[in-house]
Amino acid sequence: MSLGPEASVTDETSAPTADAAEVRGPAEKAIAGRSLKQIAWRRLKKDKVAVGGGIVVLLLIVVAILAPLLTKLFGHPIDEYHIDQIDPTFGTPIKPWGGISSDFIFGVEPTSGRDVFSRVVYGAQTSLTVAFLSAFVSTILGVIFGTAAGFLGGWIDSMISRVMDLLLAFPQLLFSIALVSVLPYSILGLDGRWSRILVLVGVIGFFGWPYIGRIVRGQTLSLREREFVEAARSMGARSPRILFRELLPNLAAPILVYTTLIIPTNILTEAALSFLGVGIPPPNPSWGGMLSDAISTYQTDPMYMIIPGGMIFITVLAFNLFGDGLRDALDPKAR
């Protein structure tokens, strides 16, 4: 039985041609969905300033971790005196530019002749350790109390909010000076450097949590009225499940951004406390302590002030640039 011309025409028009499949293929690929992580990563990669800040941050972290190895390869022990590099009359480095040479790539410390490179590297280890650990403490406390205040509401919200207002009213730096100065020199059997690092982490982390607590509380108040939370309640989900499965995943972005931005503030706080003499005790190296020692010699040896000051500036700037870029990348309203 032969088919009519209408049937042959219908077969020809209904069967997809190879050219149509080729045209439809790229279109389907073009509208392929992307996850929020992929979108954020694409945005972050396009921000060259943020990427540069992130690279500097990674380099500083590597330097802090490899401080003993770098000191062994390119420097000298942090407490090794090199009096032969110091002018006995003026107490300043003999060589120009703060004593910079092939043996001392950042120069030597006035009066004592200690290697500045080794002390800067170990100072990076101290500053980043205090900054990261205190940011971790602030984030944990801020998330716990901020989420509890925003999710539970009522008298719990009022009490936690008043505590945050009270802590925010304290002059953090002055209170930290008073608190650190009266605490014992050695804690938990640790030496002077690590026991004081532990004290600084506790003090800076404790006074830092109300800032992130307020942000988390505000975000939680907004999220708990959203449709997906109401849908979870209508399906019989209990409060712990709503909190851990619905709210906290949506709070991850602002928590991550604020944690990144609070780290440079902690670096400055640690440097200020060491500069004022209540931070890392000498002869342990710290950037703030080096700036404090440079006050008496900056007119004759400015390099000893410029190098640690420049390290603080570069570190804080890199963290701020990376934090700003991360905030823009994770912002759902950004284009």
UniProtKB/TrEMBL annotation:
Family matches, as InterPro entries: BP-dependent_transpt_permease (IPR050366), MetI-like (IPR000515), MetI-like_sf (IPR035906), OppC_N (IPR025966)
Cross-referenced PROSITE patterns: ABC_TM1
The UniProt record lists the keyword Chaperone: no
Predominant cellular place of this UniProt entry's protein: membrane
Keyword rRNA processing in record: no
SUPFAM superfamilies per UniProt: MetI-like
Gene3D superfamilies: MetI-like
Its membrane topology: Multi-pass membrane protein
Transmembrane residue ranges: 49-70, 130-154, 166-188, 194-212, 255-282, 302-323
Keywords (A to Z) from UniProt: Cell membrane, Membrane, Transmembrane, Transmembrane helix, Transport
UniProt family annotation: Belongs to the binding-protein-dependent transport system permease family.
Record-given protein name: Peptide/nickel transport system permease protein
Lineage: Bacteria, Bacillati, Actinomycetota, Actinomycetes, Micromonosporales
